[in-house]
Amino acid sequence: MISVPCPRYVFLFALLGLSPAVVLAEQAGGSVSLGYRVDSLDWNINGGSGGPNILSELEWKDLDILQFRGELSGSNYTGIYFRGQVNYGWVLDGVNRDSDYAGNNRTLEFSRSVNSVDDSKVLDLSGGLGLTFYAGEAEQWRIIPMVGYSYHQQDLRMSNGNQVLWDSANADLLGVGGGPVPLGPFGGLSSSYDAEWYGPWLGADIFLDLPARGTVFMRLEAHRVSYFAQANWNLRSDFAQPVSFEHEANAWGGVWELGWQGVPSSTHWVWGASIVIQSWATGSGIGRIFYADGGVGVATLNEVNWSSSSVNFTLRKALDN
Are 318 and 266 in contact (CB under 8 A)? Predict the structure, then answer.
């Protein structure tokens, strides 16, 4: 289930609560968007002292997402600018791959399953404030340096398991044999990996107003965030349920958006469109494993990578003052 834990996001919610007082003083606009988005997320851990540098690797790739976005933005008479966004997406298709290795650098693979991603979802919240500067002979350029805070969540699922590789000899190298594992579909898989990225960002919104032709805009954001994830590995009887392990690391990200919107109108909705590209990654971090007998193990999280691209079609309307 998508959720927004507190109190990590007090600053973000403060920005969202401040928005009406800031932007409605002079001009503001609200928009709704429907978009198509493609995401991928992967992570891997190492095997500790004497183990392979990549022991286990999980990847959710080619996630086709139907995304809804709502936005409120605008400025007051002093040029203070606000932008707040919420995105919610439903994963329609994609694939999960779960691989384990007995050798360094993804060699001596002994287990691989390819699984469905049914019921996965995504959520993004972002708010920011900036100050507007004008440029050009007709002040057609608006350049707005900004500071903000964002929260991003991927609730990723694994189901309809299908074992496509098992190598007992490689598994024995790590002492995790136990005999051959049959290939093909297997039942009961209902695991989850819920990831969160949250923290401040610096950026800029840039607008070029074209008389009678609308507005071209670009948004740039550089994020320095924290990463936290919890997983439920439901087929591992030696792991605790519902929290089997968690990951924690420092991360960074970049967001770039390029778009166009129609000529503003105080009485009509106008069309717009944009493309958004995001790239996020963590450094090395810590993994905590919670066992069914109450014990806790520690593993090194090597990295987490998340990429996202979307195309959005927008209806925007100026809000009455």
Answer: yes
Predicted TM-score (pTM) of the model is: 0.90
Burial of 39 (0-12, 13-18, 19+ CB in 10 A): buried
**Per-residue pLDDT tens for 106-133?**
999 999 999 999 999 999 999 999 999 9
Q: What is the rounded CA–CA span in Å between residue 278 and residue 306?
A: 8
pLDDT digits (tens, 9 = 90+) for 41-69: 999 999 988 899 999 999 999 999 999 99
Residue written as token pair 């503003």: 264
In angstroms, rounded to a whole number, what is the distance separating the alpha carbons of residues 213 and 203? 26
Residue appearing with tokens 């805009």:
217
The amino acid occupying position 117 is V
CA-CA distance, 38 to 62, in Å (whole number)? Answer: 6
Q: Which residue ranges make up each domain of the chain? A: 10-318
10-318: which CATH topology? Lipocalin (2.40.128)
d(CA 243, CA 173): 28
Cβ neighbours for 169, distance < 8 A, ≥ 6 positions apart: 110
Name the DSSP class of 291: B
